[in-house]
Write a structure and sequence with these properties.
By secondary structure, the protein is an alpha/beta fold. It has ten helices and eight strands.
Length: 301
């Protein structure tokens, strides 16, 4: 068995394939943090990337939102003339797994808000799935941004497609409605995601989506764990920009429900959650010992 993620060095983490990464997260017993950042937005601190800031305040995995995988731009990172070296450089600088959102847009979705046009480089397709494999991504999150028209059915179909082209860990689910008139997360969708082979089920964090209750999340966790999958709760409703006490309450409430990873979104200053909230999430989930370990551990180890 491999080393648990919260005790692993950068050299060990970067050597993990998708299966080893999943196992190391499972072994960490609900203490792994995924921080999302808008890749193409100018960073909060002008001369470094948001990924570096997130890592410095306790993030374990970095999830890039809004990245065009055919022409990748991560502000604060030198990706070479065509951007193709951006992910390699991020790995070198933060020593963390790097992932990306790809959106399985459903062109027939029944919308409750105006549908936005998602660029080709952000939409899930066979070509974009191949592109993230070539870029060296460690994981992919199949989800939908606001107004994108991503449905649970299109996510389930997307899992099958991406697993054919991508060797990393596959996270699947919605953080919010994505503008679609359907339940954000229910038992039927979770079963479809598991049947398609998802490694991690994404569910909205209890306390973020109206009407999504603790008992519903507990059932999702139970179903996923029975099938060998993990669960990630997500703060994707701009509450990542709330006060510290709200972040702590969400963290503990979802940990009680049994999730394996907790995500904090990118709605804050310059496409990154307030750093004090990333830190507060870390301390609430794993205390100062593992928080300081993640923050202070040299990426050269």
């Amino acid at each position: 068995m491999g080393k648990r993620f919260i005790s692993a060095n950068a050299s060990e983490i970067l050597a993990m394939d998708g299966a080893a990464l999943k196992q190391s997260i499972q072994a960490s017993e609900g203490r792994v943090i995924v921080t999302e950042t808008v890749a193409a937005r100018e960073p909060r601190v002008k001369d470094i990337s948001n990924a570096e800031i997130a890592h410095a305040f306790g993030a374990d995995l970095i999830l890039l939102n809004g990245l065009d995988v055919f022409s990748p731009v991560v502000h604060g990172i030198d990706g070479g003339d065509d951007g193709r070296e951006a992910i390699r450089e991020l790995h070198r600088l933060v020593g963390s797994p790097i992932g990306v959102n790809l959106e399985p847009v459903d062109d027939n979705a029944v919308m409750t808000s105006t549908k936005k046009v998602i660029p080709r480089g952000r939409r899930l397709s066979r070509e974009s799935a191949k592109a993230i494999e070539e870029l060296g991504m460690d994981f992919v999150c199949l989800t939908g941004n606001p107004g994108s028209g991503v449905t649970n059915d299109s996510i389930a179909r997307g899992i099958t497609l991406v697993k054919e082209e991508f060797s990393g860990m596959v996270i699947a689910g919605k953080m919010h409605a994505a503008g679609v008139n359907e339940p954000v997360c229910d038992a039927e969708a979770v079963v479809a995601f598991l049947d398609a082979g998802a490694d991690v089920i994404l569910a909205p964090a209890v306390g973020t989506v109206p009407g999504f209750r603790d008992d519903e999340l507990v059932e999702i966790v139970r179903a996923a764990h029975e099938r060998g999958a993990l669960v990630m709760s997500a703060i994707g409703t701009s509450q990542e920009g709330s006060d510290v006490s709200t972040i702590r309450e969400i963290a503990l409430r979802n940990k009680i429900c049994g999730v394996d990873m907790q995500h904090i979104g990118d709605s804050g200053y310059a496409g990154l959650a307030p750093v004090e909230n990333i830190y507060a999430l870390s301390v609430a989930l794993r205390g100062t010992h593992h928080t300081v370990s993640r923050m202070a551990r040299s990426i050269n180890r």
